[in-house]
Specification:
234 residues, mainly alpha, 13 helices, 64% helix, globular
Length: 234
């Protein structure tokens, strides 16, 4: 973490909390934008951290690192893309007939979700899901001492850089995250949209948080490199 001024590191940490706040499907998601997790919260029986670890079947440092590796290198992206390609090869009417005949298919619910998102996410890129969750799990891993401070920082930086490579704005990221969430939950009714939309409003709406403090293209480099890049672009 050398080369980062206190001010720049604080901006990056806020950026990382914004990116991962959409993983929290409760009102506490708002709280964990300005504030980080606290070690005492490990003992909360129904706390956000315990729920996240349980949802991803994480019990120790090894399972945490294995899950984060999966999220950063796949994160269900290929499965989503395969279904998207299968459906996009059909005309609208043929697709409707195909889905009607596929009700007994084990992937039926996932196909319905992908079909509903085709117009809103034509790229079929749900890297947002893996990147956002990798950041949240690395934050939690630090509190549970599954990761060192340096390991957690490296993972968060890697995940944020990956997301910046795949998306051009907060809007694109949030759309892809919502699609990915519905996909893994096989949520045909789209009932998990609310917390993503609410968090998007908080990040991009009335508070102007992202526009004032954490623009999408926020530099993740140490200060001296960020300054050099800015000078070179002028």
């Amino acid at each position: 973490m050398e080369g980062f001024s206190r001010k720049h590191k604080k901006r990056i940490e806020l950026y990382l909390r914004c990116l991962s706040s959409v993983c929290i499907d409760s009102m506490l998601g708002y709280y964990y934008i300005p504030y980080e997790f606290h070690p005492s919260e490990r003992w909360l029986r129904k706390g956000v951290m315990k729920k996240a670890l349980a949802d991803w079947k994480i019990t120790d440092a090894a399972s945490l690192k294995e899950r984060i590796d999966f999220l950063l290198n796949d994160g269900h992206c290929q499965e989503y893309l395969d279904i998207h390609n299968r459906l996009s090869a059909l005309t609208l009417k043929a697709r409707e007939r195909y889905l009607e005949d596929a009700k007994d298919d084990p992937d039926y619910k996932k196909m319905i979700v992908v079909g509903k998102w085709m117009g809103m996410l034509p790229s079929a890129d749900i890297t947002a899901l893996g990147g956002g969750w990798a950041i949240l799990l690395s934050r939690i891993g630090r509190i549970y001492r599954f990761l060192s401070e340096e390991e957690a920082w490296e993972i968060k930086q890697k995940a944020a850089a990956l997301l910046q490579q795949h998306y051009r704005s907060w809007d694109e990221y949030l759309t892809a995250f919502a699609a990915g969430t519905h996909f893994i939950k096989e949520d045909i009714a789209m009932k998990y949209s609310h917390h993503v939309i609410s968090r998007a409003s908080n990040i991009l709406g009335g508070s102007k948080l992202a526009y004032n403090k954490v623009p999408w293209d926020l530099s993740l480099l140490p200060d001296k490199h960020a300054s050099a890049n800015m000078s070179a672009s002028v």
